[in-house]
Amino acid sequence: MAPLILDGKKLAGEIEQDLSSRVEKIIEKTGYKPVLATIIVGEDPASVTYVRMKGNACRRVGMDPLKVEMPENTTTQELVDKINELNNDYRVCGILLQHPVPSHIDEQKCFNTISREKDVDGVNTDSFGAMTMGLPAFFSATPFSIMSLIKRYGVELDGKEAVVVGRSPILGKPVAMMLLNENATVTICHSHTVDLPKIVKRADVVVAAVGKPKFIQADWIKEGAVLIDAGYNPGNVGDIDLENAAPISSAYTPVPGGVGPVTIAKLMEQTVIAAEKKIL
Ligand code: NAP
């Protein structure tokens, strides 16, 4: 049987449609459009593209994007001060600091400066802790996208063996916790993992979050496994060799058109929730 395509474009469209009507209600009540502030430090071309895509999504659902551009030589303190300014701006419902920031900046300190109520990208340590403990919190957007695709297409997780390749604070680690909370048996792999192909071969669900094009090979995949490819590399390729691995799988996220579009939609959804909470 042909593998099921976990269609992110379609799911993102469904999410956005629901958000537009919710935003209209917020505007009716408050008289202004909710604002998502996006901070970009430096001019990394991929980040510039992501920020533009997020701004466009914001407009599509009826919200106002606020782009804050800061120079490459911005200090940690200057960025912290800017985030605090946005924390105190009543029109700003959500704050997103585009990752990665230049390496001289303490990124986690800046993430942790974003107030919990405005942390719609789910990057601060408190949000991560609460999510891990199953408490209400904004989720890190890409892991949330992955879980939404899994749920939308009815992929079974209970008792399944999930292998996450990558342990970054915004992707690998939080998605592993989310899978664990759904009763999967989770293994997290990283650059020190010994015999990665053997571990991946055990997986009923593989989540690739490595940042290396076509890194996960078809002959590492168990027949019928579900492939979630969060990778997005130059040339529109993911972290799994999907061309050869997808036919072995039972379901997979395409690249592009899988995890990416839903990530942006989930960011919008959490911003709308933040705006709704303010008027409750
Ligand atoms: P990252 O911070 O660079 O983390 C990469 C992870 O991969 C690290 O944990 C690293 O291990 C691990 N790794 C590197 N080489 C490895 C190897 N040979 N074997 C096993 N593990 C290895 O990357 P990220 O920010 O999590 O992003 C991962 C991918 O997701 C990228 O392709 C990125 O473009 C994509 N992404 C997509 C979205 C989206 O919305 N679609 C959003 C964010 C990121 P160590 O910890 O040991 O170094």
Low-confidence stretches: none
Number of strands: 9
Class inferred from helices and paired strands: alpha/beta
Which sequence of strands runs across the widest sheet? 1-9-8-7-5-6
Please state the average pLDDT score. 97
Q: Note the run of SSEs as H and E.
A: EHEHEHEHHHEHEHEEHEH
The backbone outline, from C-alpha atoms, is: globular
State which percent range the strand residues make up: 15-25%
User: Given the structure, what is the number of helices?
Assistant: 10
Which ligands, by name, code or SMILES, are bound? Answer: NADP nicotinamide-adenine-dinucleotide phosphate
Share of helix among residues? Answer: 40-55%
CATH superfamily of the largest domain: NAD(P)-binding Rossmann-like Domain
Q: What is the name of the CATH topology of the largest domain?
A: Rossmann fold
Tell me the count of domains: 2
CATH class descriptor of the largest domain: Alpha Beta
Largest sheet: 6 strands, parallel
**Gyration radius, rounded:** 19 Å
Known CATH architecture of the largest domain: 3-Layer(aba) Sandwich
N- and C-termini, Cα separation: 48 Å
